[in-house]
Design brief:
The protein has about 375 residues and is an alpha+beta fold. Helices cover about 30% and strands about 30% of the residues. It contains ten helices and 20 strands. The chain has a six-stranded mixed β-sheet with strand order 6-7-8-3-9-10, sandwiched between helices. It has a five-stranded antiparallel β-sheet with strand order 13-12-11-14-20. The protein has a five-stranded antiparallel β-sheet with strand order 15-19-16-17-18, with no helix packed on it. Strand 11 and strand 12 form a beta hairpin. Helix 2 runs parallel beside helix 4 and helix 9 crosses helix 10. The longest helix has 18 residues. Bound molecules: adenosine-5'-triphosphate and magnesium ion. Magnesium ion binds next to helix 1.
């Protein structure tokens, strides 16, 4: 039998008044992994955490914990703890009492509590801080105490809502690493929420990319980065060049007026697609050696590379990362390898496509899209 999920969402819906904020959410969280919910503001990330912790109740669907439906189980009966962005530590208690809070509520003997606090402070590298007041801690230290306090409850699941976003860049990097270490050491499941794609890629075993209350894609960081499933994901994760094209046949894609060999197969002939090329996969060369010829418009220095903006003759803009500076206004060649061309199904509805095709057949100047052109040519033949 397949391993039972720790948390499972089945077609979960949630609305606030008229507004649907979660739409048919399916989630499957196994024990022992670091999961991240990644998405823009308002996409529903915190709402999912609140459903897991029991602060909110779903309108429809099932939420299961180790196979048992917990939709109506009160928050305090769930073995789940949350670390919030503002940490919500008790300001009038010292570090020790903050971390001891959960075990004390459960009525554990003081000797056991003391050992637990000691263990947790060691885990977050703040041994010896027992008697400090919360106001005497830096933001990063408060963050660690909030994590220690949550973990002192022995949760099976730790939820972290934008927990690092208040920290400065360097501290944030360090905490990303440490959180990951803590998760690995304890082997419990973490669900981390962020809108920072770099953070998600750096920390996670699995990422759920969210937009508009819908999970757009679930995958490993590599999957999500290398094989974005749609325009939203490609655009949100890393920088992308996205142009429209058609898969003429297996291993041959057409975009910007030319055919290119690629590594994708299995679509119907002349299927409209979107083509993704990552800036770091592109290179500049001489116009003769280039697969496309472009004009340099702009460049900006980014520390270890230059981010160049160039325009092709169809007026598409291309972001390219190069190690040496270039000359604005220069005509250069753009190159890339077949395996760097990522293909996404273009999810234009049949009706929209038909409408565009009709308009094109009436006046080819109006909508000269490659997919439409090829469909029109097929009809003629
Ligand atoms: N109590 C509430 N009443 C009404 N609408 C709410 C409530 N809580 C959240 N919403 C709405 O639900 C949507 C999802 O909110 P949620 O807090 O889950 O977003 P989020 O992805 O966590 O965003 P952020 O990155 O800004 O924290 C938003 O449009 C928000 O305005
Ligand atoms: Mg939120």
């Amino acid at each position: 039998m397949a391993k039972e999920a720790l948390i499972e969402f089945k077609a979960v819906d949630l609305s606030f008044g008229e507004t649907k904020v979660l739409n048919q959410i399916d989630l499957d969280l196994e024990s022992g992994y670091f999961y991240t919910l990644l998405g823009p503001s308002g996409s529903g990330k915190s709402t999912i955490l609140k459903l897991i912790s029991g602060q909110l109740t779903a309108d429809g669907g099932d939420i299961l914990f180790e196979g048992e439906r917990i939709n109506d189980l009160p928050a305090e009966k769930r073995r789940v703890n949350t670390v919030f962005q503002n940490y919500s530590l008790f300001p009038n208690m010292n570090v020790y009492d903050n971390v001891a809070f959960g075990p004390r509520l459960k009525g554990r003997p003081e000797a056991e509590i003391e050992a637990k606090v000691k263990e947790m402070l060691a885990l977050v590298k703040l041994s010896g801080y027992e008697n400090r007041g919360i106001a005497e801690l830096s933001g990063g230290q408060q963050q660690r105490i909030a994590i220690a306090r949550a973990l002192a409850n022995d949760p099976e699941l730790l939820l972290l809502d934008e927990s690092l976003s208040a920290l400065d860049y360097q501290l944030r990097k360090n905490m990303q690493h440490e959180l990951r270490q803590i998760q690995k050491r304890l082997g419990i499941t973490f669900v981390f929420v962020t809108h920072d794609q770099e953070e998600a890629l750096a920390m996670s075993d699995w990422i759920f990319v969210m937009n508009d209350g819908v999970i757009q894609q679930k995958g490993s960081p590599e999957d999500i980065y290398d094989e974005p499933i749609n325009h939203f994901v490609a655009d949100f994760i890393g920088e992308s060049n996205i142009v429209r094209g058609i898969m003429k046949r297996d291993y041959l894609v057409h975009f910007v007026g030319k055919d290119f060999e690629n590594v994708d197969a299995g679509m119907r002939p002349n299927e409209p697609v979107e083509v993704v090329l990552r800036p770091e996969d592109l290179d500049l060369t001489t116009p003769e050696a280039g697969k496309l010829v472009v004009t340099i418009q702009d460049q900006s220095f980014r520390g270890d590379y230059y981010e160049v903006t160039a325009q092709d003759d169809d007026l598409n803009l291309w972001q390219v990362q190069v190690t040496n500076p270039v000359t604005t206004g220069a005509r250069v060649g753009l190159t890339f390898d077949p395996e760097d061309i990522h293909i996404m199904r273009f999810n234009e509805s049949e009706d929209d496509f038909e409408a565009r095709l009709e308009a094109y057949e009436e006046d080819p100047e109006v909508v000269g899209n490659a997919a439409v052109q090829s469909a029109a040519a097929e009809e003629q033949a």
